[in-house]
Amino acid sequence: MNQRLVVSTVFASLLGLGLVGQAAAADMAKDASKEKCFGIAKAGQNDCANLSGSHSCAGQTKTDGAADDWKYVAKGSCKAMRGLTMDEAKAKLKKS
After folding, report:
1. pLDDT of residue 20
2. Same domain membership, residue 83 and residue 46
3. Cα separation of 14 and 9, whole Å?
4. Which of 71, 73, 80, 88 is deepest in the core (most CB within 10 A)?
5. Which pTM value belongs to this model?
């Protein structure tokens, strides 16, 4: 194999890993001021995968207020929105 190709590939991989690390650090910083709030997402407006596993991406919830779907909200504001913590949402799903 061409040595330049190998070196270029290694360099590109390392550069990509550095960018992923920075993105993860930014997400962690964002998460410090936010929390997941379950049961408040409107249809098509959830932030990521749900607890029941029926979908795995943002914007895929089909109903308003599904207990297993969540949105990021400012830390401490979930209860005021009548939302659930993850533990409360899991307990509600077990009862269903």
Report:
1. 44
2. yes
3. 9
4. 71
5. 0.65
Residues of the chain with pLDDT below 70 are 1, 5-31
Q: Whole-angstrom Cα distance, residue 62 to residue 80?
A: 24
Q: Are 71 and 46 a contacting pair, CB within 8 Å?
A: yes
- In terms of domains, do 19 and 48 share one? no
How far apart, in whole angstroms, are the C-alpha atoms of residue 94 and residue 96?
A: 6
Give the structural domain span for 18: 1-32
Q: What pLDDT does 44 receive?
A: 94
Domain count across the chain? 2
Q: State the Cα angle at 70 between 64 and 76, rounded to 5°.
A: 115
